[in-house]
Amino acid sequence: MGKAMESIQRFGGAMFTPVLLLTFPGIMVGLSTILTTQIIVGDIAAAGTNWQLFWATIKSGTNAVMSQLPMLFMLGLPIGLAKKENARAVLEAFVTYMTFNYFINGFMTGWAPMFGVDFSVEVGGTSGLAEICSVKTLDTGVIGALIISGISVYLHNRFFDTKVPDWLGVFRGSSLVCVISFVVMIPVALLFCFVWPIFQDFIQSFQGFMKSSGALGVFVYATLEAGLIPTGLHHFIYQPFLYDAAVVNGGLRAYWTEHLSEFATVTEPMINVFPEAAFSLFGMKKVFAPIGISLAFITTAKPEKRKATIARMIPVALTAMLCGITEPFEFTFLFAAPLLFGVHAVLAGLMNAVTFSVGVVGEFSSGLLNWLSLNWIPLWVNQWPMYLKQIAVGLVFSGIYFVLFHFLIIKFNFKTPGREDEDEIKLYTKKEYMERKKGGNAGALTEDQEKAAAFLVGLGGAENVTTVTNCATRLRVSVADLDKVQSDAFFKEFGAHGVVRNGTALQVIVGLAVPNVRSAFEDYMKSGVPANAAVSQLAAESEAEEAPAADTQA
User: Fold this and answer.
1) What is the rounded average pLDDT for all residues in the chain?
2) Which of 446, 496, 490, 450 is nearest to 476 (CA)?
3) How deeply is 64 buried, as exposed, middle or buried, from its count of CB atoms within 10 A (0-12, 13-18, 19+)?
4) Residue 192 and residue 141: Cα distance in Å, rounded?
5) Catalytic annotation on 471?
6) Residue 354 predicted with pLDDT over 70
7) Residues 133, 193, 323, 471: which is the catalytic one?
8) What pLDDT shows up at residue 5?
9) Closest by Cα among 244, 276, 233 to 69
């Protein structure tokens, strides 16, 4: 069970790689929509003007990402899951995926009636068909792309290093993987031809159920999305909605951006036009929850630690509110008070349900930058009453968060930021010390390198780390021997927000710098001595500085 959960978590983290590519195209869609809406910029944006044509061209460029989500997810998965030669694994996945689609095309061309599919209709719409790199095939979406890519990665990890006789040397490495993939894709494609049309019918039924479930469905969805963050499984909740056909073909994010210009001219309430966008409201917790929670932490902090608590909370709260990256914020209190995290998940679900109940929908899956570019600015002229209701509901819940968290922290004496015992506070001082030492001996390393070196040592060294990946904020690793892994306190000393442990799968909560930390981490894995030396140096200097204080206490 532990190995299965470890694999699922690594899979969920790997899926986040292509998600990070969607932020900029989303902003450009919003900007180009704003600048081509006459009611906002005037006659300069009239149809056929050079201004309108230029920004229409800019908007069309976003299709490189928004219209190719299955391909992006298929290519992104090997980056996170391949144990070696990631670049070759990506190439193998592409070849495997295209082989799969060509086989489907062949099966459907010859025997479509046997599978219950009308393969003669045009692709798109409700046809269940798509065109992938000019190949007409079943529309398996992101789910199909991930399944095929996952099979390819498995074959890569299993057979890439397989030795073959010298006279077959040309069929080794990537060539061998592609040969095996070719054979494997024949039954896989045939299975999809039988099963996928049935699954598409199920998806359509599920769409109808979710559309008719109203606020209750929104509540369950948002609560699960928030509550599963510690496990890393929340990706499996929202990604089928945002990037696949859980409620609308192509996914909510792509559908919203493609129709944003149309939505900008709508004068009737958006809930009547596109109620499915209720499943993109979980950004509400990213913007309004940090306000109430941060105020609760600050007001319950010990007086002598209040300023330090403010300094600690403002950066993580602003990151959550502006960028929609909430994990550093949520992990700030997850370990100290799990009950508060449970309350947070329920309140997040309630906030989404209430927001939908008062008639608010839209692409609010991330932070304020997302809200401004894809919602408020392009749609404000016609939809401002809806947005005022959204802000009102959000601020009410900010107040609820504050009152409830403040009460629970005092009631149960939770050791939230600013309320830690003295010895626990010391766990955070080494990071500050490391920053002060910049320019000295420790200054030879960047902060990301320092963290990477410390985390590698804390995980038992390069010989103990079997795999390493990352998502938006977490360094995800698997280790061979748990006994060699340091306590959470060690990782916090060097700047981690905490550690999630699930058997031999560990997630070090780093923050938004995790890609840089992972890069340095992998460099150290190739030669463990520099990492150990760096940490030994930092530890020795820190102990030397802290020694007088210890003597005084003694």
Assistant:
1) 82
2) 496
3) exposed
4) 12
5) yes
6) yes
7) 471
8) 53
9) 244
